[in-house]
């Protein structure tokens, strides 16, 4: 039964060439936009979901009651991990880590080479919690030695030629005027691109506590900036664990109880998209952009589908006798509906092939625009999504024309008359109005966003950004900053030079500041 409908489709395509190509261009453009947005959304949703313990992996967070409401923060006191390990049997692994980025100007030196690196301090269970495969070392022990360091594969290769050659070798790290030597205890494969945290090396958190002389000075009342992660055992009930965790701080600190401090857990993979909290409740984050672009993709496909419907019904007068003859020969309305839906789906599949070519053509520019190295990898998920997109668009675009054409009465249409009903006229006009309304909305949105970006770019920043340079210092320059800055000021063209620990452009961790009369006093 399939060759005959396809033969009819071929004849109609051949007969109405102009309509066919206009429809093909419209649908393929819409599908190409949908595919590009799908690739971006798929990349956004993949962040932090590659860990083997993803379904049981959580981050501990804290809510605090203030005069302005409930404030949510990711920072926790470093005593928390050990307390959870002792008192919560539902936990399989737990670890405290420093946030990324946290340290400015961190450099590594070995064999005469000096490299900038992004470090992270973590408890021994870090590599058991997170799936960063170790090329050298074992997950359970690689961070137990205070004098050890775990390098990424890229860093180990640059410093020692290969990961295997780096084991046991001495590495000197420096931050500002602090310098220490440690031994390579392991090498991990590196951090995937779709990780919300990017770092080059991991050091034991115990060495950080020694470095900062934390020791016995740590109290439960402290406002720790550290992250605490845990993995529940298989079968553990997250809701029951959450109920136990909520009141933990109240048993440790009277001040915590007075300030309304409560703990809760958030799935680790949800942190990238759902990072915004208002009054203790997750209200959005990057997920807002994901939903917005999904809506835009849907509206673009609706416009393309409406364009298809309008062109399909516009040529109804030239196909009206075909309907009459086929009905007179015994064709049922259901058969005609299937024929026209098949025609629209075939058109959509052809448009998908063209759309894939368009996507491959513009993908490098789109990747540069989004800052993501996107690629069309024909994995089962992408193939299924592409086919579903094409089939859904074909059925949506062909539904109204199919039922419209198949509803003609043979006795009327064989006389060459095209039946007109008020409802059909209003439907076609309504589709045209909707199509132009959505198009105008898109154009207005683009103009407004472009004007906003231009306005932001023209605003004075308080300094001449074309003549202000910022760079990290290391080595002798970090240890002797006064002498270094004095030499910099002597350079031709330099008006003034200064230094700062951290960064005033953002991207570094800034600890909480309180003052007399603030909500925390």
UniProtKB/TrEMBL annotation:
Topology of this chain in the membrane: Multi-pass membrane protein
Gene Ontology CC entries for this record: plasma membrane
Domain annotation ABC3 transporter permease C-terminal: ranges: 295-409
Limits of the MacB-like periplasmic core domain: 21-246
InterPro entries in UniProt: ABC3_permease_C, MacB_PCD, Macrolide_Exporter_MacB
Domain of life according to the entry: Bacteria
Predominant location: membrane
Official protein name in the record: ABC transporter permease
Organism, scientific name: Hymenobacter cellulosilyticus
